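Throughout our pipeline, every protein is held as a single compact record rather than as scattered files. Such a record has a labelled line for the sequence and another for the backbone structure tokens. The remainder of this section carries one protein's record, kept here as part of the documentation:
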Amino acid sequence: MADIMQTRVPSLLIVFTLAFVASATAQVPDHSTRVVAGGVVLIVPAINGFRFPTEGERGINALVAPIILPKNRLLAALLTDGDLRLFASGRQPGFDEYFVLQIPRSVEGRVVTLNEFQPLRRGIREQQKSGQIKISPTVKRQLADASKQTSDRAGVKIHISITEPIPLGVFEDTERSIGVTILSKVRAETIEVRTEDLMLSVSVVTVVRGKLLYLNGACTFHSMIDLSRCNSQVTAWLSALHAANP
């Protein structure tokens, strides 16, 4: 049973991808990290209750990066102390909740203006209104790969699947940012056991110092309180990111 519960790891990391700089001399706030995006140094603050892996824990990013859509590059991952402790002890992290910062490879090398951002912003808003969000062929291939990799680790055949996402609306909409929430059911099953988990995927697209960035996260869902909490967490992260990179 423990093995099949761990199959949520790759599937949770996949779902949030469905939704689509400060100077180098600046002081880095406590609990923050620096990343380089297209030659621009960005200061990335942490979210309360989450932290970036330390130097000795950086290997956990290898569990995250392969699940990011190939068109994006992982810049930073915020994880819980519990998951980092599990990783440090050689066990499989649960990844029940986490946040990641990504950048599309296609535009990483150039400046994205706010005027260029507006059509993308409108498109995301209209997609939410229409309620038409589909699982892409790329994600389906990643799910198949995740099922095989997890089966190989567990020594038993495991199938991972995700229901079609349900848009829950726009929670952030400004000239430089738009944020949406999606609800999905993640299912992992073997011949003998099947587990199902509801998961919230939050996704914010924003422009920071001319770079188009995706702030994505996954949160467990038991009630609408979780929806408010997850949206508030990523909104706080967004505000801190903008403040650290004026």
Remarks:
- Residues 224-244 form the longest helix (21 residues).
- Strands lie at 32-37, 40-45, 72-78, 98-104, 159-162, 166-174, 177-189, 194-208, 211-220.
- The two ends are 48 Å apart (CA to CA).
- Residues 1-29 have pLDDT under 50 and may be disordered.
